Amino acid sequence: MPQSYLNKALTFLLLVGALSIFGPRTVVSQTVIFQENFNSRSAGPYTDDDLDEDFGEPRFNNGVTEGRVRVVSGSQAFGGSGSALATSYPAGVHGTRETGAQWPYEFGQSYEEATLSYRVRFAPGFDFVRGGKLPGLAGGTAPTGSTQATGFNGWSGRLMWRTDFNGVSGQPQQLTSGGITYAKHTDSGFAGDGVQEDRNFFFNPDGSRTVFVANRWYQITQRIVMNTPGQFNGIQQIWIDGVMVINEQNIRYRLDNSFAIDQMYFSTFYGGNGDWRTSKAEEAFFDDFVITIPDGNGDGNPGGGTPDGGGPTDGPLSVPSQFATLSAALNAASSGDVIQLTGRVTENVTINKSVVIEGLSGAAIQAADGSLDTVTIRASDVVLRGLEIRGGRRGIDVINNSRNVVLDDLLVRDTSSVGILVRPSCNGFTMTGSEIRNTNNDGVRIMSDQVMLEGNNSHRNRGSGYRLTQSRNSRLDSNRAYQNNLHGFRFNGSDLEFIDNVSQDNRLRGYNVEGDRHRMLNNLARDNGSHGYSVTGATDCVLFDNRARFNGGHGYRVLGSSGNLLDDLNSTGNAGHGIVMLMCADNSIVNCFLYQNERSGILLNGTTVDNTVSGNVIRSNLGSGIADFGDNTIGNNIVRNNLGD
User: Fold this and answer.
1) Which of 224, 316, 397, 641 is buried deepest, with most CB atoms within 10 A?
2) Secondary structure of residue 549 in the 3-state scheme
């Protein structure tokens, strides 16, 4: 079991010499806030219940539920006795969904300084390929991947093993690897492809690069000291087996004091992209996790203040320990304050100040009056994270020109109308890593501009999973709409970007598209009750590298649209046509693959003219390969084995 709270009273002295993590011959009194060596576990599968017991019921996990984590004992554990965790990386795959494991261990409060130590061993014959992630400390929303660290939302400090290798295809095994920092913070840079990390190789004192090899235990120690908000004085120090390999002392983790160090992020997988995939099945072992803070750093207030006072402090306001309700805490709060909710409250909440409300330990807001919205946001720069919001007419209603609202890691459920409603002029809305389910209307409905939705799940809603109305300059990336929504995604407006989204098993259409200059790249529509993609009244849109498979209607239905490019699309096994155009002009269908649809591969009706169809592969459809009843340009297509030809 974790000893984070049982051991808060335990202090110990680290008496070390030249290899001290705090300097030569320094005596530092530390408080252990967490330690876990897995010795209470017997060899076998590591279950969700085991994870909850050892790491305090993490709000998510990848890998444990999927069976990629097990307990090993005896000679496979550190020191040849006790137990350790083993994580697996199956052959030929990469990323968090298919390799390794991830979960957060949340401290329950924030610290200005903390030190993490753990042991890792790579299995015999381990092929390091290009690289993979290792655990590290984090704070706030712990942004990773393509989420930008703004200075106001959080930071992450994972590590990596990393080679100078270009990819797995046709290359020899990488039997050794360097190590690098992989910290994401305010000044680690940002690009649209998600690149935003400090990537500094580990170097030994003699200038040689630190090298990991297989089948030996390493002790990794990471010390983080937060910066004064806005200043370049944050610290990251890393030791491998007691040898300092990183010493950064000018980091700007944050621009305000709304977060500090509040979690350890267990994260290990092969990744980036497919070039980082495993060459064969691999395994790594982890043991002896210890997290400490210096004595006197345990008040949980990133900005200082009095931890035990009865009213607001410079640190987080706490519900229910300081205030019985969120409404009472909001009344006492000032703009910029952090309110932490532990447990569940039953109330309808109106947020009219720029505050951060974060949930700890399964926090939830249940509507007291089901005819009213559970949470109403009437202020800009509001952040909600780590909360379950349940019941009410709407779970969250963003109104009153409230800009730059951020929702992260929420569960919104069981509402009598829309789950989340963002009204006009509430621009800059962001939602990441959240789930919306069982609403009596749309899961998410947005009527504002400059919106970002990333990594969310919307399912079992009576309306659409996601609906954008008259929205402009917005982006939806890696969201899922599935399991019996009416439509998956329904949107109109202009200049919207859809990338890597999934719409599956919805009652009607996967994607309903209207408006101008949209970009749809690498999305999937599968097993929906009607069309995969329905494009109506659209102009100057690009649909590139999307897939429509096994839908109950057409793969792609285009109606009354002009000037659009349909390029490199896949339409397979749909109950209607692969692509059908009705009353359309000046569109291009190029380089598409249309296969085994139950009607024609491509149908152009009599009022569809001046379109171009070229470079497509059209095979084994039950109707014609191309059925052109208009006046269109057809050429250079491969048309084979269609029953209607």
Assistant:
1) 316
2) strand
Q: Does 271 lie in the same domain as 314?
A: no
- Helix H or strand E segment including 332: helix 326-332
The answer to whether the CB of 56 falls within 8 A of the CB of 35 is no
Q: Is 544 part of any domain?
A: yes
Residue 582 pairs in a beta bridge with 559
Res 187: pLDDT = 75
Per the prediction, the chain carries an average pLDDT of 89
Q: Which of 272, 294, 316 is the last residue of a domain?
A: 294
DSSP string, 224-265: EEPPPTTSS-EEEEEEETTEEEEEEEEE---SSSS--EEEEE
Q: Does residue 168 lie within any of the structural domains?
A: yes
451-458, Cβ contacts within 8 angstroms, sequence gap of 24 or more: 451/422, 451/427, 451/475, 452/477, 453/477, 453/479, 454/146, 454/147, 454/430, 454/478, 454/479, 455/479, 456/431, 456/432, 456/480, 457/482, 458/419, 458/482, 458/485
Residue 500 in domain: no
**326 phi, psi to nearest 5 deg:** -65, -35
**Sequence-separated (6 or more) residues with CB below 8 Å from residue 515:** 491, 492, 493, 494, 496, 537, 538, 541
Identify the pLDDT of residue 273. Answer: 66
Q: Which pLDDT score, from 0 to 100, does residue 311 have?
A: 32
pLDDT at 271: 82
Kindly report the pTM of this predicted structure: 0.56
The three-state secondary structure class of 80 is helix
For tokens 């998510």, name the residue.
Answer: 60
**What is the model's pLDDT at position 30?**
80
The token duo for 108 is 């329950």
Same domain for 616 and 525?
Answer: yes
How far apart are the C-alpha atoms of 471 and 465, rounded to whole Å? 16
**Domain around 66:** 11-294
pLDDT of residue 297: 53
Residue type, 355: V
HSE, side-chain direction, 13 A CA sphere, residue 177 = 23
Residues of the chain with pLDDT under 50: 1-28, 190-195, 298-313
Q: Are residues 255 and 312 in the same domain?
A: no
The answer to the question of residue 2 being in a domain is no
